[in-house]
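**User:**
Everyone, produce one record:

**Assistant:**
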Amino acid sequence: MPLLIQNRIIERPGSTVDLFARYPHLQENARVFRSKPVVDVDPKCLLYIQQREFAATTPADNSVAVLGSDDATTCHLVLVRHTGSGAACLAHCDGSSTWSEVPLIVKAVTSLSKDPAKEGRLDLHLVGGFDDESKTSHKLSLNLLSAFQRQKEDIHLETCCITEMNDVLVDGAHRPGVHGIGINIKTGEVFPASFPYKGPAEELRSARTFTGGQMADIYDSNKGVVKIGPCKWSPNLDISFWLSQDDDTILKYLSTSPTAEPPHFVQHIKSTIQFLLEHPSSDSVFPGGQPQHYRRTEQGDWENCCIYGLSVS
């Protein structure tokens, strides 16, 4: 069980309360992390990771300087970084397939850290969840810790701002203190963050998750290319029902944490549904079953290579 804290292998905790009681420095580290100012990240250096996505890169990447993700309530943001190579992988996990997702995250970093001249270790940063009524956050926290314990590599838990240590009271309601994080790939700094821009292809990527898509690697750091799909969905006109519902109904039935969602949650759901109604078959979005590719332009925007006939080789 090679999950380590302060260079010592830890036993599987029975609860997050137990974990923080055993390792009080994790509590202090979480408080310090939670108190850091939230950074609004410039889209021109950012690769944004949506729910059930992950991406990995290295300091040699000229297209991406920051990996980031936000809008996490019961979800957890999982970051693994190799201290020698600087390679890092960020994932937005919702508990749908934790046991199969964690090995993918670890492999994404180790595969970019094979240079023997750059010795180092794997550091783990976990951020997300809160003291929600259904204990969804708590379950995901424990499953993630257990999944990392099962990896063959030694993994050092550095940041653990999860569940009760990421919980704040706002007008008597429990909410997550940190919703989003970023990592500066060049320096390795991890920080609370928000992202006005969530592209490229925000609605398409949301539609993939909404229709049951599993965890996906969205980035090829060697080519500097974002790859979306291909994925499959079928026409479902019944979802138009949600467009006529009020905010409270949408929150009640389409959120794991109705009282803690960001203000734009309902609009995001409606935009995703509208996209699916406008593209009732995934074939129209992925002609010939081919993925969509996006490359960074000199101006810093993501450009659809398929539309402009650009090579992704």
